[in-house]
Inverse folding.
């Protein structure tokens, strides 16, 4: 589905228009909505429109160019956000890699041994339907007891662990589907060449799994970012955007633009990680020839 | 015949055996190595604490569960309606692509702090909205895919019958999309619970399950914290099983998409 | 010319039967896919298996290829068990679907079996170049399967099946998914390739003219249970010497008629050129 340049420009333009529309709705509601919000039966159904609750978009962006706090020597807010985003991204990347490796190994074991698939797969599915992320505050407690000789378990490792826990799931499911995706004809062809599981894996199953693996890797990246941000908050690790969100939100009176800064940071992390997987997909383009374009 | 029943026995017995084995191993390790509760309580202790604190856990579960349910319903209704509109009006679809794509890769829960300010930190609205926005994405994406999934042979058939657009929508498009809608809902159900739960870590009233977990942990009552986690797990299971049953019901005559 | 008793036959099928378990629960039962099959294919001989769906012709081919195992009976390929023949790579195989790996270029697809069996890069490239020339696709070595038409893909698949210069080719409706024009051209090419390589072929098809045009002998099978009901000797000269003019020859039509009548259950004794077993 390769779009012609004209069609491309049009859809890009419409995409920009979509974002602009969202901004317009924000400003429009802020202009006409009541300051205390719309309350129905004691429940606030539409937000307050005060400058504190709903700052102008200009305020949000302008704030990025001011120092973090008014004391001299304080860095610009945008650079603080970029630093925090980098910190969070680094932890998310570790969590992603661990999750991808674990998820892929699980998929390999399940593909190789049918009994392992029967025994493990329901638990893997279950592991994500239940909010085990609620464990996050408790993981640091377990981790604090772990030592490897001189090296102590660090809080950031707990955060990465939570991130990898969220990330492994899509990879294990996607990889399993991918490894089992080759046609019977291809598997039989390998059989007629009388090659074993290992060579079949290298020459057939692995390459065939890539179209399934890539969306899983993207999902895993998004999950790793969510897990990192949440775990930073629940474990109380400072330095990343998660903790920054809570800190800035609690100190936002008279400073309405400030809590939005780490949100922009989180958005950038999400886009960067998705972009990374997209680049990975381009690098593996030859393995996606059989992919049906949706 | 024997082969078939043996296969289904494996698919049922194997996971149960694996689960039981894991629990027993956990118990044995905790008791055998005298692991302290602040590291890891034993499953039996957690179970005991769970039954003792059932009242507290139930009230926390109700709050978090209600938030997840409101978020799920709100996000699902908005998602389905938006998908139908996007399927009918192509421009709307194109307008929404970057926003929806961004929403699917960005941590929605990051919005929690500002939503608390917008809707009041004493109310549950912010948590429900976090859940609703997170739910919206899979429901919208899946429904739209379902609406687009009309098989050309069916469309040609309806055209040959000289059916009106509304007849096409009613007899072919909507029924065809239904399984996709329910698949989206099943995915969203877990997301709703997780989102409602983790939004509690970012502030707001202290009455839900996640708030209870953190406060129990801060009082070093780790067994109780794990009992709350168990409550959260059960809540997630209920949401998942109900939507899974709905999905099975909707797709019983069709292969799953 | 068909049977030379001195050499070991390429394929020897003796008293082979195959049953499948089907259904589940109360409707469970067994289906007899093949019953008491006797067949011998000489070296260099082209034999087609023909019959309606469910007659077990593909099953028989799969048994020879050791993709399935017979329930009873014995299969020998060049005097070895089917399993040993597979391990020794004594045959090449082509399926109805070309079954090319989409991420490999045309040349890399042809080289796949060589690569799997540890042949060096240079030897592989030399062989794939030869085979590409043989199937007339030399200009397409670096293309990918999705850039080829169905007929070209199938030619690549045939080249792949020839990669290790097997003495036996097993082909399961390789032209089944192609349109009639492409099909006839492919038949012509296969005839030529067989003439050049001298390999024995077991060819599954449900097209009577295709079977007659290609084969030295046509094995006619009937379903439920899968049995051989007749074997038609096609007296059209050596496979490698056939060309498209043959399709309009009266000898061709006579053989087509013989196969058709065998298929439709005319008492085999009434047909000339049909030997029953």
């Amino acid at each position: 589905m390769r779009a012609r340049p004209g069609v491309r420009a049009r859809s890009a333009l419409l995409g920009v228009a979509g974002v602009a529309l969202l901004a317009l709705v924000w400003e429009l509601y802020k202009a006409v909505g009541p300051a205390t919000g719309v309350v129905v039966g004691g429940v606030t159904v539409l937000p307050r429109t005060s400058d504190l609750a709903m700052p102008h978009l200009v305020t949000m962006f302008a704030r990025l160019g001011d120092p973090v706090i008014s004391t001299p020597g304080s860095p610009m807010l945008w650079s603080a956000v970029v630093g925090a985003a980098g910190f969070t991204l680094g932890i998310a990347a570790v969590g992603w890699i661990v999750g991808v490796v674990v998820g892929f190994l699980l998929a390999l074991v399940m593909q190789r041994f049918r009994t392992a698939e029967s025994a493990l797969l329901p638990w893997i599915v279950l592991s994500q339907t239940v909010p085990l992320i609620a464990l996050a505050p408790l993981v640091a407690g377990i981790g604090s007891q772990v030592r490897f000789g001189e090296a102590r378990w660090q809080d950031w490792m707990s955060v990465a662990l939570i991130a990898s826990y969220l990330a492994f799931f899509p990879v294990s499911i996607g990889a399993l589907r991918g490894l089992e995706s080759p046609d019977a004809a291809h598997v039989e062809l390998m059989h007629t060449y009388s090659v074993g599981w290992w060579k079949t894996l290298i020459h057939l199953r692995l390459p065939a799994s890539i179209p399934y693996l890539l969306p899983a890797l993207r999902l895993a990246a998004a999950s790793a970012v969510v897990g990192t941000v949440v775990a930073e908050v629940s474990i109380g690790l400072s330095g990343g955007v998660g903790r920054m969100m809570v800190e800035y939100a609690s100190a936002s009176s008279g400073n309405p633009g400030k809590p939005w800064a780490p949100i922009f940071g989180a958005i950038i992390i999400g886009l960067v990680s998705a972009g990374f997987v997209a680049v990975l997909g381009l690098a593996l383009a030859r393995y996606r020839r059989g992919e049906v374009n949706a | 015949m024997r082969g078939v029943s043996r296969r289904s026995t494996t698919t049922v017995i194997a996971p149960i055996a694996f689960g039981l084995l894991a629990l027993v191993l956990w118990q044995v390790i905790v008791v055998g190595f005298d692991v302290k509760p602040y590291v890891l309580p034993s499953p039996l202790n957690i179970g005991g604490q769970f039954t003792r604190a059932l009242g507290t856990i139930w009230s926390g579960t109700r709050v978090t569960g209600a938030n997840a349910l409101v978020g799920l319903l709100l996000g699902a209704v908005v998602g389905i309606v938006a998908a139908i509109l996007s399927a009918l009006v192509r421009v709307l679809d194109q307008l929404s692509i970057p926003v929806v794509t961004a929403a699917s890769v960005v941590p929605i829960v990051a919005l929690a702090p500002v939503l608390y300010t917008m809707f009041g930190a004493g109310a549950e609205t912010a948590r429900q909205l976090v859940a609703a926005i997170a739910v919206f994405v899979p429901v919208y994406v899946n429904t739209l895919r379902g609406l687009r999934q009309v098989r050309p042979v069916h469309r040609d058939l309806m055209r040959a019958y000289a059916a009106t657009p509304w007849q096409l929508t009613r007899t072919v498009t909507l029924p065809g999309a239904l399984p996709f809608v329910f698949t989206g809902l099943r995915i969203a159900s877990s997301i709703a619970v997780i989102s409602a739960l983790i939004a509690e870590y970012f502030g707001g009233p202290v009455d839900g399950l996640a708030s209870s977990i953190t406060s129990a942990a801060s009082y070093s009552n780790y067994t109780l914290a794990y009992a709350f986690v168990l409550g959260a797990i059960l809540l997630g299971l209920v949401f998942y099983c109900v939507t899974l049953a709905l999905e099975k019901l909707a797709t019983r005559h069709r292969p799953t998409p | 010319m068909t049977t030379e008793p001195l050499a070991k036959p390429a394929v020897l099928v003796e008293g082979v039967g195959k049953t499948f378990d089907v259904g589940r629960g109360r409707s469970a039962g067994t289906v007899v896919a093949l019953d008491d099959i006797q067949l011998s294919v000489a070296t260099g001989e082209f034999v087609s298996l023909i019959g309606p769906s469910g007659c077990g012709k593909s099953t028989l081919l799969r048994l020879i290829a050791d993709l399935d195992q017979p329930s009873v009976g014995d299969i020998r390929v060049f005097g070895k068990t089917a399993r040993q023949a597979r391990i020794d790579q004594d045959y090449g195989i082509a399926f109805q679907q070309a079954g090319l790996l989409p991420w490999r270029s045309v040349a890399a697809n042809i080289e796949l079996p060589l690569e799997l069996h540890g042949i060096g890069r240079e030897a592989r490239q030399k062989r794939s170049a030869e085979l590409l020339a043989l199937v007339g696709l030399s200009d397409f070595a670096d293309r990918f399967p999705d850039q080829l038409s169905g007929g070209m893909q199938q030619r690549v698949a045939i080249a792949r099946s020839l990669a290790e210069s097997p003495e036996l080719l097993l082909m399961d409706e390789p032209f089944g998914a192609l349109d009639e024009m492409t099909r006839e051209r492919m038949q012509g090419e296969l005839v030529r390739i067989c003439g050049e390589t001298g390999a024995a072929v077991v060819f599954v098809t449900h097209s009577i003219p295709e079977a007659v045009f290609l084969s030295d002998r046509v094995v006619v099978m009937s379903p439920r249970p899968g049995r051989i009901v007749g074997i038609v000797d096609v007296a059209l000269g050596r496979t490698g010497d056939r060309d498209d003019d043959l399709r309009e020859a009266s000898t061709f039509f006579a053989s087509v008629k013989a196969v058709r009548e065998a298929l439709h259950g005319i008492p085999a004794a009434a047909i000339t050129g049909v030997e029953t077993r």
